[in-house]
Amino acid sequence: MTDIKGYCDPRFISVREALAALLGKDDVGASAAVYVDGEPVADLWGGYADANRSISWERDTLIGVNSTTKNMVALCALMLADRGELDLSAPVAAYWPEFAASGKENVLVRQVLSHTAGLPALSGPTTVEGLYTWESVTAGLAAQAPEWEPGTAAGYHALTFGFLVGEIVRRITGRGLGEFFAEEVAKPLGADFHIGLSADHDHRLAPLIPPPSLTDDYAATAPPRPDGTRRENTGVAIRVKDANSVAWRRAQIPAVNGFGNARSVALVQSVLANQGSAGGVRLLSLQGCEPAWQEAFRGEDRVLGVPMSWTTGFAKFGNTFGWGGWGGSLVVSDPSSRMTVAYAMNQMIDRDRQDDHRGMEIVMAAYSGLH
Questions:
Q1: SS3 letters for 236-276?
Q2: Which residue, 330, 329, 341, 328, is CA-closest to 369?
Q3: Is 1 contained in some domain?
Q4: CATH of the domain at 251
């Protein structure tokens, strides 16, 4: 049995057992956390921070969680809406006038957050380096025409989500998304999560490990459709070596370049499961949380190729909501139980070659503790 470190309420011993089983099988290093009523009931970690299994995964080890970062971006938007600084039903152009170009004058903020804005791909950058210049990426998005009539269909906005929401936040607050998150979310909560990572945290970072039998040239792609075909990749191909690079860490790519661990992910997202507060810190009113829970779109997602339910900022799964990241990280929140469960790891799995149920195994173990 793999040695698991950290704290676990006796009711949630199955979470410890599930993490140990994963580390004994597919995982190299990982963390799992469960928050109930905005307080930790499981905060666990184990394994190794490197592929050679020479450096232990510690309490403060950080990992890139890829698209799990989108949950953090959405929270920032909901906080501004709750404060009355952002109207989710207003046109994006009310805050970002240049965005009205190319027939987007009526695209609503809530459509951006629910992946229905018709801008699933970037038309400008063709290399990862092209993502590092915020002004050129957002100017390109402002000039782009939507691929479909906004609001009529959904298509996962894999990279554009963070630039679109981030620019709205910047226009309102004068701060970049990473700065806003650090000052308004991470600092009050004491959450060790970062959108973009500064050099002083590099020593704590575990690199992502490509899926078994693949190299660090392994690239993120849209999942295959049920018939086996793929949407043409018109965006930038991001490889494991890119996500592990210094340039990536220093950039602002808010949809995908967040760094943390299961504890920090679960802590932040427990705000939305616990009616707006966690650890005695209130970030939202109860009403301000509701857009995260309420379905905004249901139907076939044009990019993912599967039926999806999107809320304002999150994917909805039954009575729960959240989202995961390329390679396997995941966070799920259940407002009816006031529970949030998170999983973050360094060993990636290629879902084209192997089913990846690791995050859901942690989630189901947490539910067994609840009941």
A1: CCCEHHHHCCHHHHHCCCCCCCEEECHHHHHHHHHHHHCCC
A2: 341
A3: no
A4: 3.40.710.10
For the chain, how many structural domains are there in total?
Answer: 1
Spatial CB neighbours of 106, under 8 Å, sequence gap ≥ 6: 91, 150
pTM of the model: 0.96
Distance from the Cα of residue 107 to its chain's centroid: 23
Contact 193, 269 (CB under 8 A): no
The pair of three-digit structure tokens given for residue 266, joined into one six-digit string: 């679960």
Q: Is residue 151 part of a domain?
A: yes
Which domain covers residue 94, as residue numbers? 59-334
Residue 38 belongs to some domain of the structure: no
Strands 295-300 and 277-278: unpaired
Catalytic residue list contains 123:
no
Q: Is residue 77 part of a domain?
A: yes
161-183, pLDDT tens digit by residue? 999 999 999 999 999 999 999 99
Catalytic residue among 31, 67, 277, 333: 67
Residue range 9-60, pLDDT digits in tens: 999 999 999 999 999 998 999 999 999 999 999 999 999 999 999 999 999 9
Residue 287: how many CB atoms within 10 A of its CB?
A: 11
Residues facing 341 on adjacent strands: 34, 332
